[in-house]
Amino acid sequence: LLLRWRRRWALWKKVKEAQLKHDRDLAQMEKIALGFRKKHRSVNPVSILSLSLPELTKKLRDGSLPPEYVFCAYVGKALQMTRETNCITEYMWESESKFRQAVPPENPGLLFGVPVSIKDSINCQGYDSTIGFASNLNKPAAEDSVLVQVLKRQGAIPFVKTNVPQSLISYDCSNVIFGQTLNPTLYTRTSGGSSGGEGALIGGGGSILGFGTDLGGSLRLPAAFCGICALKPTGNRLSKRGTISGIPGQKSVVAAVGPMAKHVETLALSMKALLCEDMFNLDSTVPPLPFNEEVYSSTKPLRIGYYETDSFTMPSPTMRRAVREMKELLEDAGHTLVPFELNNINYYIFNLCVRGLFADGGSSFSKKFKGELVQNNLGLLLWLSRTPDWIKTVLSWITKPFTTGSISALLTRGALDPQESCHKFIDQWKKLNLDVMLCPVLGPALPVGYPGKLSVAVSYTILYNCLDFPAGVVPVTTVTDEDEDELESYKGHYQDHWDRILAKGFSGSVGLPVAVQCVALPWQEELCLRFMREVERL
Predict the structure, then answer these.
(1) 383-417 pLDDT, tens per residue?
(2) How far does Cα 171 stand from its chain's mean position?
(3) H-helix or E-strand containing 475?
(4) What are the residue numbers of the active site?
(5) Residue 459 has what pLDDT?
(6) Is the per-residue pLDDT at 379 higher than 60?
(7) How far apart are CA 346 and CA 381, in angstroms?
(8) 440 φ, ψ to 5°?
(9) What structural domains and CATH numbers belong to the chain?
(10) 8 Å CB contact between 518 and 471
(11) According to the 3-state scheme, what is the secondary structure of 346-410?
(12) Is 205 within 8 Å of 45 (Cβ atoms)?
């Protein structure tokens, strides 16, 4: 008991030190922003922050806009956003020397002089990747992840790391070190997770381009909640070397690294920059597939599958309306829309996704928390992972008749191979001769703390991790008074405890953004982005 107390005291001491360092980081950001303002009173940061990424990179590459102006404008805005939403964990001090040295070379990279934000779990040399665990403090990465190495070779300037939920296995965004990240559109709502710091920072305009990871929706949910765009590529399209996983070893639900931004064209430019020889040479497991500009730039009409519900998580009225309105707009623009029926969704969610993530009964997951300072919002998930097998067996038998299957799946050891189900899904897709798919993504943003009670609500996003399809989100509408009125009759597909909590979480959301999800077949990121661009345009 004494040893345990001493360990906890040592961890709290590390947390306090990290918080003091965080304060120093923000003080340095303020110094940079104020110093620039005094030195360049005639420069309007808003005019810089309002530039799209193609416009910004053009000005940086031709020398008409100094990198210092861009860097300081974004540092000032990022400081404002983290004070409002608590989204930044670390400021990268050496980034200042990068912009001061940044003179356009003869062949500047595609992202020359662009400040970019990086999720906590992606290694940056000299900085911690804590994933919300105090025991990971003061363990700086020995080298950059492959993603960060390629970004730097393309001229980008990583300048901040952003907040995540403890363990990453949550779509809220809170941990014992840095606290809760809030949604920039409404502070009582979560920014989403696990790339929630990125969602809040980019949603509030404090970063033009950021990078996160996605295991179940960790890019797409924060983007949808914060009113921005994100792309989850096929799992191995971008290198994951040097990224930290919440559940190491599992392969049934495929994680991916991807970009987040306010506009689809920013996502596309970042993918063009990353899919280069540097990426393929630094990680030979990444297939050498350069960005296909012809596919992305095509304007030919698309054949689009769509569904309004996955028959597992009842969509909010706004989610359903978003898909319906988008379907009509796409049809009016000359595209063909084809109804798609999801078959056996319960099997995908419980047998492939949940059992795949926790195939060892949750022992790998629970080991990460041994001796740790634990965030309370993991609740049931952590308790079940720590429960002895014989109790899990009894609980599985008892709960099976009364639940939708989530408890039983969490209590069952052993993963099932998703390949056969993936091939069946693709066969159904090809029988309809589809190019892409339009479907819902969870929204609007839920109140802080609700994701811990509603892990089952990730069904719309985790499906495409299980299938390993590229999927992106684009904001298309906001919650209306009519949507709010319609919510009064919301029952859910199962009319159970989770459906009642979800209905309560959706309420009081007038004005909040809601997105749609755009999906393509594996390795067709360019087609997915082309579809997202069309949705954004319409």
Answers:
(1) 666 666 656 565 555 655 545 555 555 555 556 67
(2) 9
(3) strand 471-478
(4) 119, 194, 218
(5) 96
(6) no
(7) 19
(8) -75, 165
(9) 16-291 (3.90.1300.10), 298-358+418-537 (3.90.1300.10), 360-413 (no CATH)
(10) yes
(11) HHHHHHHHHHHHCCCCCHHHHHCCCCCCCCHHHHHHHHHHHCCHHHHHHHHHHHCCCCCCHHHHH
(12) no
Residue type, 94: E
pLDDT at 383: 63
* Local confidence band at 121 (pLDDT 50, 70, 90 cut-offs): very high
Q: 3-state DSSP call for residue 174?
A: strand
- The whole-number average pLDDT for the span 477-483 is 98
Specify the 3-state DSSP secondary structure of 425. helix
**What is the Cα 334 distance to its own chain's centre?**
31
The strand pairing partners of 91, in sequence order, are: 160
Query: Which tokens in the block code for residue 309?
Result: 């519900």
Average pLDDT over the chain, rounded to an integer: 92
User: Is pLDDT of 377 > 70?
Assistant: no
* Block residue for tokens 């590459």: 61
Contact 241, 146 (CB under 8 A): yes
DSSP 247-289: STT--SS--EEEEEESSHHHHHHHHHHHSSHHHHHH-TTS---
Question: Residues 6 or more apart from 343 whose CB is under 8 A from it?
Answer: 424, 428
* Helix 67-85 and helix 196-203, axial crossing angle in degrees, nearest 10: 120
- pLDDT for the residue 481: 98
**In 251-409, where do the E strands start and end?**
256-261, 303-306, 336-339
Radius of gyration of the chain (CA): 22
